Amino acid sequence: MTPEVTPATMAGMDEVKVVVAHHERATLRVGDVFLKVDADQARIDVEVEAMALAPIPTPAILWREPPVLALAGLPGTALGRLGEPSAASPAAWAAAGAAVRKLHDAPLPPWPGRSVEDIASELDRECGWLVANDVLPADLVTRNRHVAGAALRRWTPVFTHGDLQISHVFVDGDTVTGVLDWSEASRGDAMFDVASLTLGHEDRLDDLLAGYGADVDRDAIRGWWSLRSLLAVRWLVEHGFDPSAPGCEVDVLRARM
């Protein structure tokens, strides 16, 4: 049984580690407790409700004192990190795939996701910005905008995590112990989650699909790799991250050339 951890008991924990911090939110680690600080309470509301609805392991909520959400740490380690080879076994990737399939087969959450039209409009804006500001070569943007078109089709909505980065899935050996960061959860395209989890780790797609199932649209997955990367570059730059680091978003885009 996990002991109750309250704001008062946190006072005795003297080691604070910044896990991630940017202009919108921050996550801190204090001992074995993770503190998510987010001024957007609607986003935290989604995270709390999505974790309650998800049929797969999620972190235990210890307490909530807006704007802070305290979560218990998960056993094991992340499936991997963007920009680094994943040391996880094929069986661990398959287990992650099975967990994602279980989520996608679950009843839909009550709130909607984004429309194809909204995503296409944002993609056009971002591609224009990338070229106009000489952030990326025009031919690189044009090629990936074309590849991204395969993702912009009608899909049957499923319960999606919405930000299923490889570092958000924790495994212990070949077992999934939990999935983090549910603030973007919604009704969406199943292939978006599959693509997000394998972004920068295309060589592990077949391992993931061994657990998820083979009935996937690989063109759509490739489309989402390009689309997610194109949409991410400006946000990453403006929030102090480097999308051109080895193995990250710009390399994902270059791989399409």
UniProtKB/TrEMBL annotation:
Pfam families linked to this entry: APH
The record places domain Aminoglycoside phosphotransferase at 52-222
Query: Domain of life of the organism in this record?
Result: Bacteria
Q: What is this protein called?
A: Aminoglycoside phosphotransferase
Source organism (scientific name): Dactylosporangium siamense
